[in-house]
Amino acid sequence: MTGSNGRRITIKDIAKAAGVDPSTVTRALQGSSRVKPATRDKIQRLAADMGYVPNMAARTLVRSRSDLIGVVIPDMTNPFFRDLGQGIEDEAAKHDLRVIFNDTRGVESAERDAVNLLLELKIDGLIVPMARSPQDYYDSLAQSLGASVPIVHINRDEAPHHVSCDRVGGSIRVMQHLIEQGHRRIGFVRGPTGPGADPKMVAYRRALDRASIDYDPALIFSFDGTLASSVSIVDQLLALDDTATAVFAHNDVNAIAMIHALRDRGLRVPADVSIAGHDDIRLAAYVDPPLTTVSWPMYELGQQSVRYLYSLGHGASPEEPRIPDPELVVRESTGSPKAARLAQTSSSSA
Amino acid sequence: MTGSNGRRITIKDIAKAAGVDPSTVTRALQGSSRVKPATRDKIQRLAADMGYVPNMAARTLVRSRSDLIGVVIPDMTNPFFRDLGQGIEDEAAKHDLRVIFNDTRGVESAERDAVNLLLELKIDGLIVPMARSPQDYYDSLAQSLGASVPIVHINRDEAPHHVSCDRVGGSIRVMQHLIEQGHRRIGFVRGPTGPGADPKMVAYRRALDRASIDYDPALIFSFDGTLASSVSIVDQLLALDDTATAVFAHNDVNAIAMIHALRDRGLRVPADVSIAGHDDIRLAAYVDPPLTTVSWPMYELGQQSVRYLYSLGHGASPEEPRIPDPELVVRESTGSPKAARLAQTSSSSA
DNA sequence: TCGACAAATACAAACGTTTGTATTTTTGCG
DNA sequence: CGCAAAAATACAAACGTTTGTATTTGTCGA
């Protein structure tokens, strides 16, 4: 039984009901030691009974901070970002910060809209994982914002404040793994690239170099994010004269769709073609064949970005965060090309 | 080159720079016809140059609404909710509303935290798809909130305001499909159930009834959301004396993991066991075999929920929303059990 | 040139909270 | 019992916008 007419309960209502000044109510609700325990309890009970919901707008206005941090995520539905979000939330909770996520669906204009909304909400800090917009945009933002809203990027080394993991090492390990298995013709699927060099591409070429394998542009394919494009990549692949015996896919979803398309066309993985993914999504271990892939320390990246933000907001100079390395997860979607040739022989002789 | 010292630019700063009153600035920024076009342009240019970011806290405070709607989502990473979110955003944009999503990760307490945060932000309305918390909670919330923050549930018929689709029909069609193929022993995988009857379970039993097939509790399994549990379900299934020839899985992810486990144990899908999923996630068409599943009209549910919310907030009595029916999508993970027996025979004779 | 009326702008209060300071009440001690 | 110090509470200003009303400026026709 609370005040159920239009207006919402305010601190003043509670003050009136308790016969005290609004300032006392505020302090009681904050648990300040300046108010007598008995009064505090009475007020807190009253607030609960009356269904008081703090007006964050008023609070934010006067304190000029919101205890809110904003996160701009390119694609919420990408399981890849799940652990990131969890890491952010867990660490934020430790600092009494609350988190607002915004999905941009990888659209640059949506990214800016989201950033604007968050800034209008007067967030205390902004975390931007794998931004689409160019760094210039964020730079000018940071400049006009002054130091009031620190911005921490994830995996964008050129940003003034960033938390990053090794984006090349994991992919190099994938390539090395494939090369060790004996593959020489390895395809590479490029994703929709943001600004800057694609670290996977860097890794691809570096690994090839180290193994003294010639780079062949014919083996580079483009994934546009739709699963249909994965299928067409497979068709392009199979149309090649001297095709690849292994492919480093852009991510796990891309890899899964490619495996499907390959099978559809009568090829086996890894017997005929090895496929490696990236991201180590939850399903990766539960598809056929289970995916060889790379897992990134997303949870830690999330955690550290909040820590970094926090120290930035408190004038402390943040220590360089220590982020674990990406890991190569070898499962069954990759194998030796010898197996492929053997299998081919046996199947053709049958 | 904007004001790059700590304080952020306010309307007053712009007013001073333009030599006008703050109220004129507000009106100019709103594009009000009460201000002379020349002044308006000057002010708008000035605002842009100075890097003005509106203070939503102040704005919300005085207008006592935020043009923000909140959405509490059980699991952002579930692709199932992607279209929902898109539908909500698209429709919200039409009404000049902005959307804040909050992921609860299916945790009831997180759901309440999220709702609290949103209410403190003074959202103009709340959309709750597939809530975990009991309706009592939302009822008491609605009561203490008065009419100020309308709450629209998605797929919760017992809620005072809700937008729902048929949650039984699609599953019935799956079951009918399996039965038509000749299956008599059909397994069912129950998910982590919220409050109320599980509509899939209802569909399962009803379809069995209609086909005069006896209900056998031994064919009911429980999926806890982890993929590992999908594997153990398969083991339970295979341990049965008179096992199922088809299984209606809780969702596509569960189905994919089960297919993997079945193959791992030497069985083929659908030759030995048919598996049907639910949700029609993006990957469903791109795994092996492509999944027979049910797709729900998530986008429309999102759209309609915003429309409903909007009319609620404007005193209009919302018309009953028209939501399309769920669709059965037949792909290749289901087939006739005869094929299974044939395959078995041929393989045993080989 | 002077009203009258419209257009453009200025004024001022309000939103709900927080917080520094002032005031009142209580406590403890000589 | 009185007084100082401490504890508890009240007062008042401020945060940045919005918006109804008042005031100033400009325009037009007689």
Average pLDDT metric of chain A:
91
The strand order across the widest sheet of chain A is 2-1-3-4-5
The gross shape of chain A turns out to be elongated
Rg of chain A, rounded, reads 27 Å
Give the quaternary arrangement of the chains.
homodimer
What separation lies between the terminal Cα atoms of chain A? 80 Å
Write the layout of secondary structure elements.
Two copies of one chain form a homodimer.
Chain A: H1 11-18, H2 22-30, H3 37-49, H4 56-63, E1 68-73, H5 80-94, E2 98-103, H6 108-120, E3 125-129, H7 135-145, E4 151-154, E5 162-163, H8 169-180, E6 186-190, H9 199-210, E7 220-222, H10 227-239, E8 246-248, H11 252-264, E9 274-276, E10 293-295, H12 298-313, E11 327-329, H13 337-349
Parallel strand pairs in A: 1-2, 1-3, 3-4, 4-5, 6-7, 6-8, 8-9
Antiparallel strand pairs in A: 10-11
The structure holds a DNA duplex (30 and 30 nucleotides).
Structure at a glance:
2 copies of one chain form a homodimer. The first copy, chain A, has helices spanning 11-18, 22-30, 37-49, 56-63, 80-94, 108-120, 135-145, 169-180, 199-210, 227-239, 252-264, 298-313, 337-349; strands at 68-73, 98-103, 125-129, 151-154, 162-163, 186-190, 220-222, 246-248, 274-276, 293-295, 327-329.
